[in-house]
Structure formats: structure tokens, C-alpha cells
């Protein structure tokens, strides 16, 4: 009997705070056609590692514009960046100050505590 | 000891919260506008790609009275008519004010263009092209708010407790997501503008923010809720194929502008079998359409994803592009060619008719505690008309901001250090005790969403609701054992925990109310009690008594009629 082939994607994710040594974690995520990178990040939080810090609000409407990260080196909205069944590197925005994992300070001037 | 101090504290910075901030500031109050996400980018407003219902009378003759009548008809006898009147009467002022501030309402022949929507008797719904109403309005309000120096905005600050002393609000405790610290905030008035509870349901059209926090905070502070059983299930939310970059409720405006046939899994028209006439003109109200789609699916006539087909194959690409321009390209990116394939649609939780019980000043029974926007219960009764939610956000936001500012001006602060310290000590202790463990709060959130969808969703029975309540109460007992982690900076486990705590309280409120209403009316459908029972032409009010939810029935608030 042969196992049905289940497609997966691997997310290679930069972790940590500015005070920690650079570190990447790999997560294997079940893949379905049409999935976004944010879908995969949310799946990881719910099913594997809830400590992964990400920022999003509108889930996939691309209305809130808060879910940006580097996907394979390009700045993308993770909610509309399509996942592929391969290895995908996800890193925080390079020109913003890092808070933790994929979360950077993107809050407009004067809106921080 | 208060770290922040203000006249008016606003919890939630969507459409209602931002409007409230502007209104309070123009009455001379200092304002602190908080959002657990980012100011002006979370909540429901920015997701609203559709329309705003207001009796401008620009497209065709209309009046406040006619809008009110349509709203009351849709509400199935349960509207708080004073709130409905306020919504209809002040709507036009708010739309014109937004236009002055720069919102570009779609126009034709020199007037604001208004479209028909189900349940409205005239063309009343204005919008911003293309499917851009919410983002455009949110941008206008963000710009307006940021230009007012007496409004301080803070993002990533989640209010977790309203502080009340001697029956009057004195401030709040907020969790800073960035640092993980609890922040005491002193204020003379508090406005709950944190939206609805659609996140409680597995299938929903909400952003990630709508976990029912406004309702839970109100209950814990001693205020009352009303009509909590009435969750609106939007009938034609997008199910398949997978679509990203679009709001799942985007198909409604397609149907307003272009028709669009709703077909069952056998490609038959069916709405007319469920008591709604005029099929083809898209006049079925949301409650009937949601019911009809799920009943067809239950009878084995659904689509592969358990919904109905929405079919635009009778239209040409030219017609589609004429009506929706760049949106058609976004669909193509998603592999959807409407001239060739129908899409699958089905009901999803979209809006909450119930909410915080307020008077026409938006004040709760707790002094200085107000609500605004979707957080308010009553204006839409048992079913809301398309387009009334944004109107409500602007009108109730403006009203709450004005009234809270005027009241805060008259009163000294009621602040008390000991009350604030006590609240923070309780949270800190809880956190220290449960830094590890399992499961995670987000796993339990996912379980709660599935439970609510299956047992307290569009079709309810006493048995299903009782099972839901039992599990919700178990989860409430589990709360202290969940993992909240030790990380300080952007600890989402900790934020999830506070969200889950509020979600469970809001879910219990919905389920208890749904159990007690043993009839079917509007958005509340009991399969064991089909059809309305006019002995239930009354509103259900909830409050916490010694930590337990207690319910009672009151007569609906009616207008004096000549």
C-alpha cells in the first residue's frame, strides 16, 4: 500500500530579539494550493510553536497592511505572498528596528507608548 | 501611580473609536486612543469593502423616516427604536463630514452615487470605488486623528480591565504588547469601541481583533449586555477556491451591481423556496439567505465546501471590468475567471447585533463608561441591514465622544491607586504562576471557534447549546493552567490568553442568551423551536451577579408615536 503523497512547505524563519545571537528555525507545514505565507505562519503558531512572534490583523484581505516581512529576501505582505511546496525563508523587515522574531517596529511616529 | 492620564480613554481605534476621538477632542477633552493592534488598521471598518446606508436622498428621494422603517422591519420587532432613529437621523451628517475630510464617495452626475441593497426600499448605499469603502474611510479618519494634538494614539496596547470605583469608571489597566508590562491608565470617561465578536466562530469574515473584548470588559465592569443571541451570519461569504488579498464578503457588491445567480449544488435557483420573493433582484435579507443556503446543503444539495454557487457566467468580461475594474485583475491572480467558473459561497459570522446596553448618550449603567460602534447592542434588533454597520460606527462614535467629553468636563477624577495596584497584582501573580504548561491559549481559541461554529452557529438546538456551554465553562476553569510564557517582548501567548479570557466570557453570553430564547427570529434560528413566537417580542439583558451571568427580559425601547 502506498501512502498518499502529502505536499509540504518548509518555512526557514529568523527568530529572536536584537540582544540574541542570530538563529533560524525550520517548520514543516502541510501545503494546499492557494495558501499564503501568513496562513503557514498562523498554522505554525496554532499547531507547533505559539511563541513565534508575527504581526497581522485582517488575515487575508490585504487591508490592514501590517503583515510585511522579507520572503526569500523580498519585502512582501505575507497575507498575499503565495506559499510554494518548497523551502521558503522568512525574515523580519531589515530597515525597521527588530522587536522579536518577525515583528519589527512599523508603528507610525508618536504611536508608541 | 497612573502611567497615563486623560479625560477620555477610547478602547479600540477602528471607525467608531477614531470618530469618538475626534468628537471628544473638538469638545475640548484630552483623548487617549488605544488599539491592541495598530491605530486605524484593525477591527471591522478597514475590512468593509462595501457600502454605507444613509438617507442622503441624492440618488432618488429618501428620508430618515423611510430608512428607519426599513431598519425596524429588518430588526423583526426587537430594535431599540431610539438608537435606530439616532443611526438613521445622524447618518447623513457623518457621511458629509467624512466627504469634507477627504473621503471620495463614488459620484455620478454631480451627486453621491447610491446603490440598492437587500432590505432597503430605495437606493441608499454609498461607497468608495473599487470595493474600497472601509480602507478609504479608515485612511480619512487616521489622517484627521493624527492632525489633532489633544489626541494621543498608542498602538499595541490592549485594555484588559476597566477600573470602576463607587459605580463610576476611573480608568483601565492595559497590557503593552511590546514590553509585556501592565500599564495603569487614569481617565474620567472610558469608551468601549473594540467592535464585535465574530472571531468566536470558525467561519468568519472578521479581522483577527474581534474577540468580544468590548462585551467582556463591559460585563466585568458591571455594565449590562443586550440581545447577545443575535449573531449575523453573512450569507455569501467566499468559501472556494482559495482567495487571498480580498475580503471574504466581497461578493455582495458584485450582486448589487451585476445581479449574480445564487444556485445550489445542482445548479438550481432555490431562494424562492424559502419564503423570499423577487429572486433575481437580490432582495432576500441576510437571515433568510443564510438559512436557505445551509438548508440546501443539509438536504444534500450543497456545493463541495458546503455552500452554494454564485454564478456570473451570464456576464461578459467587459461588463465585469466596467463594474469592478482592478478587482477583476485581483481575481485573475487568484485563478478565478468569473466568465468561466462560479465561485462557492456560504454563511460566515459577520456582525453582532447584540452588545453593550446603552442609552441614547451611549452611556452604560456605569457612570463614565460608554460604548460605540458594533460594541453597542440594540440598534439593529434581530437582523441588521446591509450598510448600517459603518453608519452605526460613525454615528455612535461621534455621539459617544461628544457625550463622554461633556460629562468628563463636569466631574473630578475618581482615581484610586489601590484599585489599580490590586488589578495589576492579580494579573502579575497569575502570570508568574503559569509561565509554562499546556495547552496554549491559541490552541484553545481554535477549539472554541470550532465549538461555537458547530454548536452555536446559524442553526441552534437546546442540546447543542447546552453542550457548548458545558465545554465553555470547562475551558474557563482551564484558563489558569494555560501556557503564557516568560518572554516579555511581543509575547503573543500572553495576548492570546487575555483574548481567550474575553472570548470565553462573550461566548458564554451568546450561548446562554440563545438557550433562553426558545423561538426563531431573525439571525437566531432554533431548529427545536422553528418560527417566531410573539411572546418573545422582548429583549434579553445580561449582567454578572456574583460572577455568574444572569438574564432578564425587558420590553423593547419604542419611539413615542403620534
Structure description:
The complex is a heterodimer of chains A (113) and B (562). By secondary structure, chain A is mainly beta. Chain A has a single domain, classed as Beta-grasp domain (Ubiquitin-like (UB roll), Roll). Chain A is built from one helix and seven strands. Chain A has one helix spanning 37-47, and strands at 8-15, 23-30, 68-71, 74-77, 87-91, 98-100, 103-104. Chain A has a five-stranded mixed β-sheet with strand order 2-1-5-3-4, covered by helices on one side. The longest helix of chain A has 11 residues, at 37-47. Chain A is globular. The termini of chain A are far apart. The relative contact order of chain A is 0.23. In chain B, strand 9 (168-176) and strand 10 form a beta hairpin. Among the domains of chain B are: 235-349, Flavocytochrome C3, Chain A, domain 1; 418-536, Up-down Bundle (Methane Monooxygenase Hydroxylase, Chain G, domain 1), CATH 1.20.58.100. In chain B, helix 1 (15-26) packs parallel to helix 10. Chain B is globular. With 562 residues, chain B is an alpha+beta fold. Chain B has helices spanning 15-26, 64-74, 81-101, 133-146, 213-221, 251-258, 286-301, 317-324, 326-333, 388-410, 417-433, 441-456, 462-478, 492-516, and strands spanning 4-11, 31-34, 52-53, 107-108, 111-112, 125-126, 151-154, 157-165, 168-176, 182-192, 225-226, 231-240, 261-263, 308-311, 343-352, 355-356, 369-371, 539-545, 548-554. Classes of the chains: A mainly beta (113), B alpha+beta (562). The interface between A and B is large, with 39 and 48 residues.
Under the CATH scheme, which class of chain A?
A: Alpha Beta
| First-to-last CA distance of chain A | 59 Å
Discrete helix count of chain B: 14
CATH superfamily of chain A: Beta-grasp domain
Chain-averaged pLDDT of chain A: 93
Percentage of residues in strands of chain A: 25-35%
Strand content of chain B: 15-25%
Strand arrangement across the biggest beta sheet of chain A:
2-1-5-3-4
Tell the overall outline of chain B.
globular
Low-confidence stretches of chain B: none
**In terms of per-residue confidence, which ranges of chain A show pLDDT below 50 for 5 or more consecutive residues?**
none
Amino acid at each position: 500500500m502506498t501512502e498518499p503523497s502529502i505536499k509540504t512547505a518548509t518555512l526557514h524563519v529568523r527568530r529572536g530579539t536584537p540582544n540574541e545571537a542570530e538563529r533560524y528555525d525550520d517548520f514543516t507545514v502541510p501545503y494546499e494550493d492557494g495558501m499564503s505565507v501568513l496562513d503557514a505562519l498562523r498554522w505554525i503558531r496554532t499547531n507547533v510553536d505559539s511563541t513565534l512572534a508575527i504581526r497581522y490583523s485582517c488575515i487575508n484581505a490585504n487591508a490592514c497592511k501590517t503583515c510585511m516581512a522579507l520572503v526569500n529576501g523580498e519585502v512582501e505582505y505575507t497575507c498575499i505572498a503565495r506559499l510554494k511546496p518548497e523551502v521558503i525563508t522568512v525574515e523580519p523587515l531589515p530597515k525597521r528596528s527588530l522587536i522579536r522574531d518577525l515583528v519589527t517596529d512599523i508603528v507610525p511616529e508618536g504611536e508608541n507608548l | 501611580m497612573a502611567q497615563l492620564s486623560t479625560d477620555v480613554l477610547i478602547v479600540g481605534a477602528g471607525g467608531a473609536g477614531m470618530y469618538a476621538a475626534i468628537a471628544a477632542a473638538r469638545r475640548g477633552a484630552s483623548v487617549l486612543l488605544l488599539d491592541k493592534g495598530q491605530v486605524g488598521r484593525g477591527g471591522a471598518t478597514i475590512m468593509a469593502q462595501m457600502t454605507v446606508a444613509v438617507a442622503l436622498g441624492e440618488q432618488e428621494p429618501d428620508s430618515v423616516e423611510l430608512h428607519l422603517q426599513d431598519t425596524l422591519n429588518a430588526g423583526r420587532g426587537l430594535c431599540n427604536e431610539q438608537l435606530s432613529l439616532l443611526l438613521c437621523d445622524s447618518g447623513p451628517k457623518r457621511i458629509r463630514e467624512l466627504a469634507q475630510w477627504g473621503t471620495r464617495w463614488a459620484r455620478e452626475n454631480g451627486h453621491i452615487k447610491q446603490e440598492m441593497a437587500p432590505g432597503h426600499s430605495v437606493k441608499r448605499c454609498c461607497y468608495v470605488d473599487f470595493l474600497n469603502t472601509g480602507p478609504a474611510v479608515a485612511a480619512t479618519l487616521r489622517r484627521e486623528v493624527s492632525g489633532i494634538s489633544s489626541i494621543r494614539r498608542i498602538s499595541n496596547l490592549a485594555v484588559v480591565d476597566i477600573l470602576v470605583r463607587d459605580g463610576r469608571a476611573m480608568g483601565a489597566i492595559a497590557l503593552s504588547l511590546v514590553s509585556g508590562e501592565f500599564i495603569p491608565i487614569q481617565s474620567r470617561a472610558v469608551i468601549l469601541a473594540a467592535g464585535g465578536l465574530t472571531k468566536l466562530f470558525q467561519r468568519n469574515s472578521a479581522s483577527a481583533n474581534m474577540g468580544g473584548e468590548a462585551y467582556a470588559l463591559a460585563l466585568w465592569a458591571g455594565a449590562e449586555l443586550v440581545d447577545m443571541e443575535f449573531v449575523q451570519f453573512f450569507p455569501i461569504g467566499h468559501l472556494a477556491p482559495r482567495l487571498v488579498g480580498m475580503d471574504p464578503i466581497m461578493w455582495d457588491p458584485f450582486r448589487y451591481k451585476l445581479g449574480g445567480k445564487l444556485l445550489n449544488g445542482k445548479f438550481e435557483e432555490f431562494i424562492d423556496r424559502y419564503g423570499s420573493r423577487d429572486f433575481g433582484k437580490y432582495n432576500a435579507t441576510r437571515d433568510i439567505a443564510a438559512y436557505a443556503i445551509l438548508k440546501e446543503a443539509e438536504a444534500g444539495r450543497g456545493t463541495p465546501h458546503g455552500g452554494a454557487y454564485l454564478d456570473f457566467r451570464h456576464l461578459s468580461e467587459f461588463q465585469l471590468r466596467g463594474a469592478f475594474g482592478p478587482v477583476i485583475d485581483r481575481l485573475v491572480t487568484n485563478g478565478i475567471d468569473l466568465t468561466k467558473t462560479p465561485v462557492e459561497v456560504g454563511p460566515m459570522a459577520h456582525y453582532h447585533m447584540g452588545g453593550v446596553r446603552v442609552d441614547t448618550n451611549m452611556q452604560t449603567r456605569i457612570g463614565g463608561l460608554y460604548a460605540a460602534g458594533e460594541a453597542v447592542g440594540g440598534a439593529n434588533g434581530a437582523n441588521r441591514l446591509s450598510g448600517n454597520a459603518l453608519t452605526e460606527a460613525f454615528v455612535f462614535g461621534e455621539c459617544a465622544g461628544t457625550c463622554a467629553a461633556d460629562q468628563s468636563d463636569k466631574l473630578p477624577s475618581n482615581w484610586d491607586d489601590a484599585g489599580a495596584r490590586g488589578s495589576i497584582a492579580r494579573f502579575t501573580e497569575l502570570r508568574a504562576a503559569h509561565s509554562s504548561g499546556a495547552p496554549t491559549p491559541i490552541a484553545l481559541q481554535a477549539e472554541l471557534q470550532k465549538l461555537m461554529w458547530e454548536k452555536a452557529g446559524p442553526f441552534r438546538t437546546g442540546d447543542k447549546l447546552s453542550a457548548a456551554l458545558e465545554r465553555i465553562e470547562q475551558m474557563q476553569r482551564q484558563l489558569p493552567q494555560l501556557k503564557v510564557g516568560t518572554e516579555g517582548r511581543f509575547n503573543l501567548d500572553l495576548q492570546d490568553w487575555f483574548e481567550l479570557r474575553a472570548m470565553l466570557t462573550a461566548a458564554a453570553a451568546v450561548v446562554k442568551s440563545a438557550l433562553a430564547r426558545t423561538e426563531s427570529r431573525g439571525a437566531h434560528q432554533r431548529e427545536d423551536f422553528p418560527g417566531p413566537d410573539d411572546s418573545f417580542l422582548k429583549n434579553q439583558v445580561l449582567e454578572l451577579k456574583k460572577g455568574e451571568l444572569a438574564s432578564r427580559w425587558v420590553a423593547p425601547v419604542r419611539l413615542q408615536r403620534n
